[in-house]
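Title: Prediction job returns without error message
Component: structure pipeline
Severity: low
Priority: P3
Assignee: unassigned

Description:
Job completed but the reporter wants confirmation the result is attached to the right record. Sequence as submitted:
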Amino acid sequence: MRYVKPFELFHDLMKTTQKERGRLMGLDVGDKYVGLALSDFDNKIASPFSVLLRKKNNVDLMADDFKSLISRYSLKGFVIGIPYSWHEVSSDACQVNVFINNLHRTNMLEGLNYTFWNESFSSKSVDLIIKSLNFKHPVHSKTMLDKFAAVGILQGYLDYANKKTKLITPDQSMTS
């Protein structure tokens, strides 16, 4: 796994031909679950995908899950939500960094690029919507929250990257 700056991930993806182009996956990393969102092949729309149980004691299993998803869904990169704070490093941000470092140490996701995207308030805004649905089981509510928080992270990133791409090359398509 290799960290790249946010726009670099998207720019590199858009330089590929339509056949080579893959998708991006958004990750909302929590204590127990990792919410996943998946982009379309044009990398314009994020959709809720799934939730993985976070396996803190055996990160190899989690890396294996990701490896399977990468090949099955033509994933080219991860957009990982991380809460930004102007003044201090939050415990949630530390947790995300530990998770990424642990995945990196498995060496199972080599060649995959990832970037971070500000997830501040993504869970809180989704939580307001989810509460009104009155799920009977708290796990359903929590997993829906994680999936849709991942959608918010990925969609925010895609909107930013697509808009920046249009500003840089207003008369040209970045596809080859």
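Comment from assignee: result matches the submitted record. The CA atoms of residues 7 and 164 lie 8 Å apart.
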